[in-house]
Request: fold
Amino acid sequence: MAVAAPPGLKIGTVAARSGLPVKTIRFYCDEGLIQPVARSAGHYRLFDEGVYADLALIRRLKAMAIPLAEVKGILAARRSGLCTCETLQATLRDKVDEIEAKILDLRTLREELMTLLESWQSCGGRRA
Reply:
């Protein structure tokens, strides 16, 4: 009697549908960000439909430059059924503060450059 293959989506299918390279999905598995639900007889990773929501969240958090360790924690809390709203909000607030600090630093640098340009005197050399 033949053994039925476990249900699930192969990594290539997940990659094609999500728009991510297979290598990236393997990396996320190795880092514990996503988890296959089973392995095929040929030891291929198999995923359920929930992997797409996880991948979409990973993409959004990565776009905000949230470190993978924090992304992993957020995903783990979400899978456990615990509310992660406060954790995620705190992470986002920290990211907003970080961006505000960078904006301030860039404005300061811009002002310094503008002051330098305004006070610049010709060096007297020939123009190219």
In short: Residues 85-119 form the longest helix (35 residues). The mean pLDDT is 87. The domain at 1-66 is CATH 1.10.1660.10 (Multidrug-efflux Transporter Regulator; Chain: A; Domain 2). The beta strands are 9-10, 38-39, 45-47.
